[in-house]
């Protein structure tokens, strides 16, 4: 492979903002695997956000991109799996599997798509120093004829349209808006863009904790919500605390620590076989590797308010953000019924084939 921009390349990143800024280029924020695609004739490589190779996990994507991409190019985009009218991140996670036979089976069962939103190189030219407006024009011209599995991300310069997308697209599984300055050059691994994500709050039961890697202070809080049958389900964690706050939390929660998990609602987590069919905080996975996932059971008596962006099935898609304790809330009242459900939106109205005029 001999391209003007060679792997590995870390993608340009975004910093968070509370509101959609004016006077910029806007795109939807996709909920998938960020990826840089390198194509040089018959050779194609897919690198992850951390530059790890993803190529072997998506054979159907490699085949489709070799058929549709320009002969020599480097593209930035997102790998997604579409199920019905929505993105399905759980199905995408399953695609990362060590067994080649399962990789091939999943490629047929849950085929992936690539949504391109930037171009770093085309033919023999590097576009890293070109302004965004020039790169966008080059991208749409190079990908004039797209179909599954290749799409061009919709974009607009109109803030009102971006606001509408922010509200509508969430129902299709997208999680916000990315805004980019019109003159922005491509800056690998820098937070040069702006992301505006949905944020909601929920009152959750704190039913366990994990210690921080530095010592006996809180690393993360394990959060639960009651389902319709009255079972306390694990929905995620809250983990980002200053060190001083981690010590304060352990002081506050030590009286709730149980000597044993036998009488805890999540007692079955101690049995390895319980992890086979359910997502549990002590379950090993391909993503955690050898990371210590042991947890400390707490009496489920404390309630905290957390902020979250959106749900992935029955749990928080990302780490929730601790806001405050809620001593006024009864833990038994903390159920799924308090969670906001976005209006459904058909992803087919977002991802449409691009045809030459």
Automatic annotation (TrEMBL):
Tell me where on the tree of life, at the top rank, the source sits.
Bacteria
Which residue range or ranges hold the ATP-dependent DNA ligase family profile domain? 105-231
Family, per entry: Belongs to the ATP-dependent DNA ligase family.
- Catalysed reactions, semicolon-separated: ATP + (deoxyribonucleotide)n-3'-hydroxyl + 5'-phospho-(deoxyribonucleotide)m = (deoxyribonucleotide)n+m + AMP + diphosphate
Q: In the record, what terms sit under GO molecular function?
A: ATP binding; DNA ligase (ATP) activity
The record's keywords, sorted A to Z, are:
Ligase
Extract the PANTHER family matched here.
DNA LIGASE 1, DNA LIGASE 1/3 FAMILY MEMBER
| GO BP annotations, alphabetical order | DNA recombination; DNA repair
Q: What is this protein called?
A: DNA ligase (ATP)
Pfam families, per this entry?
Answer: DNA_ligase_A_C (PF04679), DNA_ligase_A_M (PF01068)
Recorded hits in PROSITE patterns, A to Z, give: DNA_LIGASE_A3 (PS50160)
Q: Which CDD domains match?
A: Adenylation_DNA_ligase_LigC, OBF_DNA_ligase_LigC
What EC numbers are recorded for this enzyme? 6.5.1.1
InterPro entries from the entry? Adenylation_LigC-like, ATP-dep_DNA_ligase, DNA_ligase_ATP-dep_C, DNA_ligase_ATP-dep_cent, NA-bd_OB-fold, OBF_LigC-like
